[in-house]
């Protein structure tokens, strides 16, 4: 089954039920607090779990003139009905060990009654109950389709709980919270559905029929005291739902004992069991469903239900946010596919690639060109086409996005009747092992078609980088002789809240390779961790530059290489202590120091050491850390030398391995990894984590080496460890 079937089912189910689901969740959250408030009442006696009926009944009989009924509720509060020593009618919670009164039951508060009625039937009686039941069933289907989507997203059941790549807020937390609240939501949905079916008598016999007793056969001898009745001795109070006491001393009146799973009648003189009837399965399931659906009896479960109901509200919001974003990016065409000279085909799962495609589309239309934009799955014969532009994302294990799955088959089926120049742009992320794989596949496929001729080489765009996209746009413009300038809209940094940071130190460039360290302090306390990015705006315009942060002594430290004419590095280089800048801290949670790893290997080259300096400085728990770094020459290490030595002495850093590429043995960091191959694979085998930060070229080398080490020594591809959160990367 394809991802789209699950996605559309998930969406259709959510759309059809969201109003009732919102109502049910809000009322569900409120109702979850009823068992919580009840549990907090002081009506539960200590050690009630250890008492038997044989111990309790004589005590109660002594203290009260007449007992009518004793019941034990889900909170293990023991309630007694009867008359007291003065002959006054009484209904009270009692201490079953002493018979003393602990309190008087009060009816459910009007507020909870009102909310319960709304939750159960929307004040619409049977019709309302039907709709509420249907909503619970739809919730079950939504949960199943959502689970399938997560399995597909995570690329398999086994990776269900592995790290989630963060795309955007709504999407990330939709999946994160979806996984966390999966079980409670399935329980809510299943139990709610069952209770509705039971209510409409659709689950079999759900009533308890009392047995008929042969009164003529009742024996009066041998007479025993209740404390000596075997059945009372063997029945724990907490297993009792209720016990109805005999109406008179006559042998024809008997005890009716309702346990959790069966009902017994007991001769009041001899203690003989007169009848024993297990409850029908439907009754037991109804009681279990009530326990699970309401949280009665368990404070913790009631709180879990409240949180899960809150999550359902968040899913409604985030689900619609995701859909809105997707729809907002869909194409609107002025010309038809058959009359257009420029065909733009898009492969996109979450819509962002459409934004880029639309920009190209608009530029072509503005220049009076007949251009047509559509999904890759809508590929067909384009009789007037001269140019084919394919912009596509990659998903899954280097696979096509949903709206591009049929493209390969369609290309084989519909050759173009005329020659067409094509160009492919891949959108992807280096966070995935198969970077832009689907775009490469499309490029290869087109290259094989007799009618297709490339206009420019394939280009890739990492993390929607406007700069990388504009490189393609320039190349294509030149070859097609048609300018498509990248609009400021696309490059504009979205409006966000900025932080004011004050420079506290700047080493300026002292080294031949131009590296310097700059430190800053925020004006307000911010949640920032080593590995996050600092986004700066050197020219106070849309141009944003990102730097990896190391947090040392509550300050943000950046390690920067000064590039001649570099916008960001030049700006930072000129800053002096006391100066303040406007910047933004961007969370990069997938590159934080792993809290639970037994060992961490850090691999860096050049300024990629920056986040690791912060992580080492904060490694107070002394997790074994092995730092592998590559520099050009010894002097490049100079500014970090003292800090690294001190960290080693303080056991925050276990080992330091350095490769110099322009001195001595002229090694790269990858050579050190080959040297320490056994150690590295051992670390991966014992669930250690490898972190890589630095240049993309170094990342590529290191990944190639790790992949062959992992394949040869561990029998897994390196992507296996990445998927298990054991390989974290932040390269640029
Ligand atoms: C679940 C998931 C899987 C992804 N898999 C890959 C991949 O294998 N290779 C890749 O280069 N990018 C991968 N990406 C990144 C997307 O291709 C990238 O973010 C792209 O810009 C999204 O475009 P869209 O918003 O148009 O769908 C993946 C993203 C997600 C959320």
Automatic annotation (TrEMBL):
**Ranges for the FAD-binding FR-type domain?**
496-594
Q: Which PROSITE patterns match?
A: FAD_FR (PS51384), FLAVODOXIN_LIKE (PS50902)
Q: Which Gene3D superfamilies match?
A: 3.40.50.360, Nucleotide-binding domain of ferredoxin-NADP reductase (FNR) module (3.40.50.80)
What keywords sit in the KW lines?
Flavoprotein, Membrane, Transmembrane, Transmembrane helix
Report the protein name in the record. Answer: PepSY domain-containing protein
Record field: transmembrane? 130-151, 172-195, 299-324
- For the Flavodoxin-like domain, which residue ranges apply? 342-481
A Pfam family this protein belongs to? Answer: PepSY_TM
């Amino acid at each position: 089954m394809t991802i789209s079937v699950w996605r559309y089912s998930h969406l259709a189910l959510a759309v059809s039920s969201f109003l009732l689901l919102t109502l049910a969740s809000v009322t569900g959250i409120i109702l979850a607090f009823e068992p919580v408030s009840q549990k907090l009442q002081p009506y539960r006696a200590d050690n009630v779990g250890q008492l038997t009926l044989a111990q309790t009944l004589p005590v109660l009989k002594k203290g009260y003139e007449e007992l009518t009924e004793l019941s034990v509720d889900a909170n293990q509060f023991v309630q007694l009905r009867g008359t007291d020593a003065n002959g006054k009618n009484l209904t009270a919670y009692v201490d079953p060990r002493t018979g003393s009164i602990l309190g008087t039951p009060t009816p459910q508060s009007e507020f909870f009654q009102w909310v319960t009625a709304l939750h159960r039937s929307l004040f619409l009686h049977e019709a309302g109950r039907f709709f509420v039941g249907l909503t619970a069933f739809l919730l079950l289907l939504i949960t199943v389709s959502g689970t399938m989507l997560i399995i597909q997203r995570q690329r398999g059941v086994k990776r269900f709980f592995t790290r989630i790549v963060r795309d955007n807020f709504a999407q990330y937390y939709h999946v994160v919270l979806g996984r966390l609240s999966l079980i409670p939501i399935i329980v809510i949905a299943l139990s709610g559905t069952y209770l509705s079916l039971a209510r409409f008598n659709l689950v079999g016999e759900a009533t308890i029929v009392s047995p008929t007793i042969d009164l003529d056969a009742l024996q009066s001898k041998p007479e025993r005291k209740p404390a000596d009745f075997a059945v009372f001795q063997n029945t724990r109070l907490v297993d009792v739902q209720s016990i109805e006491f005999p109406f008179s001393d006559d042998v024809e009146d008997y005890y009716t004992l309702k346990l959790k799973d069966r009902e017994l009648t007991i001769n009041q003189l001899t203690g003989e069991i007169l009848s024993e009837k297990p409850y029908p399965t439907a009754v037991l399931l109804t009681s279990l469903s009530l326990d699970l659906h309401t949280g009665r009896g368990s404070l913790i479960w009631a709180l879990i239900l409240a949180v899960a109901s809150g999550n359902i509200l968040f899913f409604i919001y985030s689900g619609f946010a995701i859909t809105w974003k997707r729809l907002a990016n869909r194409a609107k065409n002025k010309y038809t596919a058959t009359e257009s000279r420029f065909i733009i085909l898009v492969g996109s799962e979450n819509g962002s690639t459409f934004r880029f495609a639309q920009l190209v589309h608009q530029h072509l239309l503005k220049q009076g060109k007949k251009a047509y934009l559509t999904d890759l799955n809508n590929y067909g014969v384009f009789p007037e086409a001269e140019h084919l532009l394919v912009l596509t994302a990659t998903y899954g294990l280097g696979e096509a996005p949903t709206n591009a799955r049929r493209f390969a088959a369609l290309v084989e089926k519909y050759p173009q009747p005329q020659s067409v120049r094509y160009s492919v742009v891949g959108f992807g992320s280096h966070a995935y092992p198969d970077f832009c794989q689907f775009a490469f596949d499309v490029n290869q496929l087109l290259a094989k078609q007799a009618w297709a001729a490339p206009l420019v080489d394939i280009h890739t765009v990492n993390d929607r980088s406007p700069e990388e996209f504009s490189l393609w746009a320039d190349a294509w413009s030149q070859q097609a002789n048609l300018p498509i300038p990248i609009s400021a809209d696309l490059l504009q940094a979205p409006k966000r809240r900025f932080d004011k940071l004050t420079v506290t130190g700047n080493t300026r460039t002292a080294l031949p390779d131009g590296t310097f360290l700059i430190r800053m302090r925020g004006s307000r306390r911010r949640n920032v961790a080593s590995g996050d990015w600092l986004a700066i705006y050197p020219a106070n315009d849309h141009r944003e530059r990102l730097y990896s942060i190391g947090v040392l002594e509550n300050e943000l430290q950046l390690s920067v290489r000064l590039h001649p004419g570099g916008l960001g590095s030049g700006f930072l280089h000129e800053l002096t202590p006391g100066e303040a800048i406007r910047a933004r801290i961007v969370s990069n949670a997938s590159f934080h120091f792993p809290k639970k790893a037994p060992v961490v290997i850090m691999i860096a080259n050049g300024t990629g050491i920056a986040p690791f300096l912060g992580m080492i400085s904060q490694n107070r728990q002394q997790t074994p850390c092995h730092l592998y770094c590559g520099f050009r020459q010894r002097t490049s290490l100079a500014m970090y030398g003292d800090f690294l030595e001190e960290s080693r002495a303080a056991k925050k850093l276990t080992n330091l391995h350095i490769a110099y590429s322009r001195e001595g043995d002229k090694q790269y960091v990858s050579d050190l990894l080959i040297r320490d191959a056994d150690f590295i694979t051992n670390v991966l085998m014992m669930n250690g984590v490898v972190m890589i930060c630095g240049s993309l070229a170094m990342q590529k080398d290191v990944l190639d080496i790790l992949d062959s080490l992992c394949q040869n020594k561990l029998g897994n591809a390196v992507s296996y460890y990445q998927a298990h959160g054991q390989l974290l990367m932040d390269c640029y």
